[in-house]
Design brief:
Layout: H1 6-24, E1 48-49, E2 52-57, E3 61-63, E4 69-76, E5 82-89, E6 91-93, E7 99-101, H2 110-116, E8 126-129, E9 132-135, E10 140-147, E11 157-167, H3 176-181, E12 196-204, E13 210-214, E14 218-222, E15 225-236, E16 240-247, E17 253-262, E18 268-274, E19 284-291, E20 299-306
């Protein structure tokens, strides 16, 4: 039996660790180019790793009686051609705001598994084409999405995520010459990371409704930056989606987070809102949750916090 070169094996393990760290990004909250807090209203979050740099817009699509089609634009901002697969995936939101595939919810525990069981998939009512795109450097292409109306939905909201995932290049493996050059018994691996972006596709029958309130607000420190922890509590048959603003008594914006959703499978989530400055002792600020869905700009909920 050949004995593996120990140093090569350890190096390979380190490479695998790095690769899986990048791959994990495909199945965590950043799947939610639509849900991850952002400080600016960019078209969408875009992962950047050398040649892999893709962008997707819009960030969220809602279908209803008066809207049955949508064009989703995928753009390659990288310096090399990239191929992406297009798929409809069912995801579940956790109380932390993390988005994970329904198929993997059990890995997050019984609470996540129970929430996943209540997700109403929109896949039976959606058609997205094409299923694969080849994008040259600086090139964009369109995915056409069509929705049909659920019968007897009774105010329910159906949701799936349109996901685009990079496909490794056909020449990403070892060549025959490279394989032959390896020393006898040496383990040789080549790792290529896979990245993905997704946006929610929501199908409503027009009767879905939802309301939001804010729970008790507390303060915290995250990576050396002061922040407010704001519980968003949802009720009704649909999701809520909007932005949180924190304003001082002088109407100064001291905190802002955009694109916060609470989906029907959870009744509340806690949003961390980084502050632009530390609050003074005894200072009271107003925290508002503004809709960016059915009535953009409308304050769905508000509360206050006094620093101590």
């Amino acid at each position: 039996m050949n004995r593996l070169n120990i140093q090569s094996f350890r190096a390979a393990l380190r490479a695998l660790t790095v690769a899986f760290a990048g791959l994990a990004g495909l199945f965590s909250a950043p799947l939610a180019a639509q849900d991850a807090p952002a400080s600016a209203p960019a078209a969408a979050a875009a992962p950047t790793t050398g040649a892999a740099n893709i962008n997707i817009t819009p960030r969220r699509v809602i279908f209803g009686p008066n809207k049955r089609t949508e064009a989703v634009y995928v753009f390659n901002q990288g310096n090399a051609a990239v191929t992406v697969d297009v798929a409809l995936v069912d995801n579940v939101m956790l109380p932390t705001g993390e988005i994970v595939p329904v198929a993997r919810a059990a890995e997050k525990g019984p609470e996540a598994e129970a929430a996943a069981a209540t997700v109403k998939s929109a896949r039976p009512y959606l058609l997205a084409a094409p299923s694969r795109l080849v994008l040259g450097p600086g090139q964009g292409k369109t995915i056409r999405v069509r929705a049909t109306q659920p019968e007897g939905a009774g105010g329910a909201e159906y949701r799936s995520h349109l996901t685009v995932t990079t496909v490794p290049a056909a020449d990403s493996g070892l060549t025959a010459e490279q394989a032959a050059a390896a020393q006898r018994g040496e383990l040789v691996l080549r790792i290529q990371s896979i990245f993905g972006l997704s946006i929610p596709l929501i199908v409503r029958d027009g009767a879905a409704s939802a309301q939001a309130t804010l729970g008790p607000i507390t303060s915290s420190i995250a990576k050396g930056t002061p922040e407010l922890l704001v519980p968003i509590r949802r009720s009704g048959t649909g999701s809520v989606y909007g932005n949180i603003e924190v304003r001082s008594g002088k109407n100064e914006v001291v905190g802002l987070v955009r694109g916060l959703a609470v989906y029907p499978e959870v009744t509340d989530r806690i949003a961390g809102v980084p502050l632009l400055r530390a609050l003074r002792k005894g200072e009271t600020v107003t925290v508002s949750y503004f809709a960016e869905d059915q009535k953009p700009g409308t304050a769905m909920a508000s509360g206050s916090f006094t620093a101590f």
